[in-house]
Amino acid sequence: MRVLVVGGTRFVGRHIVQALLDADHEVTLFHRGGRGEDPFPKAEHRHGDRDGDLGELDEGEWDATVDVSAYVPRQVRALGDALDRAGGRGGRYVYISSISAYASPDEPGITESAPLEVLLDQENEVVTPETYGGLKALSEYAAVETFGAETLIVRPTYVVGPYDTTGRFTYWARRLAEGGEVFAAGPQDQPVQVVDARDLGAFVVRLLEGGASGPFHVAGPPAPHGLGDLLEEIRAAVAPEGTTITWVDADFARENGLDGRLLPLWHEGERDQTGAVDSSAALRNGLRLRPVGDSARDVVAEADVTPLVDGVGLDRGREEELLRAWRGRERRAES
Fold it and tell me: How, if at all, do strands 26-31 and 44-47 pair?
């Protein structure tokens, strides 16, 4: 296939491009460039800003277009106009959305037909943690409206692995690899799922090759799977002998100013059921999920391309302060 990838040089897009090239497809990347030498010398590179000028896409025809970098519906529609919309030069359209596009479910195990988030101000294009899911939902609607019913929508959960730019899973892998006493906040059964970006990329290629359409969850391990399970899987894979995890309650963490950035993947005491979606449709269509421990080992081994992110996770000094405070609270409770 001839595939146009919009984005494609960082993290999720990078692994999708690699999977396409590994499968001997012809890839054209449209991206801003300007970050040194273009990756993927076997691919064609066209430089431009999707928010300003799509003129580099005036020529060419592709069997599929994979859009990794659309966060607002206007971007989807503009790309459609540039590619002559449904049935045009872009072929089948693949939109990389997110599990965050769902309205908060009451129960685990939601399928792809669950209600999506509703953004009250649909003219708002400011992407924040509060608007991200609603904007992804609106972008999904725009994708089907623009590119037609054959649109393929991929909804991953937390994406992990080499080249991760978020630092969330990376923090836990690197911290547990250092050993010692590790601070974490409960509830341990807070639902959480992850997918390695390499597995996501391979699955997108399988869907394209199979002519699939519609939405698919890309998440694992299957529910029930909690934050405690995730950290234990990472610990078993990368931590030196004697490493322990000290769990504090959510009230203590919040009282000490902690949030989901300082304790990545922690939902601040909430059991958000978007961390427990049903991925059976994807598994039936070829999704293969590597063990969490394999992803953790690779993140630690490839630290040069998977750095920690400033402001994500606790520094060791703050972690030690919190552990002392928690031990003091437990001693007072026992006395």
Answer: parallel
- Of 289, 4, 246, the closest CA to residue 158 belongs to 289
| Tokens representing residue 139 in the block | 């972008």
Residue 53: name the closest of 35, 68, 75, 29 by CA: 75
The model's pTM: 0.96
Q: What is the pLDDT of residues 246-273, one digit of tens each?
A: 999 999 999 999 999 999 999 999 999 9
In the numeric block, which tokens belong to residue 185? 């906040």
Closest by CA to 264, choosing from 316, 312, 211, is 312
Strand 64-67 vs strand 181-185: parallel, antiparallel, or unpaired?
Answer: unpaired
Torsion, CA 11, CA 12, CA 13, CA 16, rounded to 10? 120
Q: Give yes or no for a contact between 25 and 1, defined as CB atoms under 8 angstroms apart.
A: yes
Residue range 98-149, pLDDT digits in tens: 999 999 999 999 999 999 999 988 889 999 999 999 999 999 999 999 999 9
Tokens encoding 292:
């969490």
